[in-house]
């Protein structure tokens, strides 16, 4: 603990060097994420973990962090990724030097979800699936239903939740080896403001916005307009349309987040960087990139 406290104290003398370090990238095969609130020490906590990472690269026994991400927002957090060996140790951490901290496990980055599709299991109940697959780290199961003629019809597709950050490629159900594919849910849209990417608690909208005409002050079930206008892209369709460029963008963000097991801000930036602006073609985007010279050294 003395070494940790001394290391943390030394961060204050290195602020000029590391004040702009926001995240450390890594490529861990086995990563568990724990959330570290900023509390009263701000980015000093991130600097502390960065120092731990540098020590880890030199082989020090205090090496803990494989990856550090700062999540923006009103209550900013540092997401620290460690290997499973140190996960339980980090979760019990209550102080960094004299500063109190809380390090709960991240609610979503420590689990993975996959879709099991097999017609042989269409009549198997959720309880039976959990009992059969519990020893393969399955902690939840939900069958996908479709609505037809006002009735819910069960399908052969089951969403399995695993207590592991990395989704297994397959599972063994009885004598059957079943392949899995990542579960990519649809984007969540707030029905009050019609915007994507936030929950009811974080919604800043004050007035109800219609999902059909994009006007404020009424809901879609009482809309009298004859024309459609999207609240997000201003296109001639409802805000719920799956052909909306905003819906397609948000769906891709979710896919990148799940497949790379990263945070939403990271995934959003990746998709944004590889998506041309509206009105600019992919070929034009490529032509605008600087060309590398062939100068030989």
From TrEMBL:
Keywords: Membrane, Transmembrane, Transmembrane helix. This is CCHC-type domain-containing protein. The chain crosses the membrane at residues 35-53.
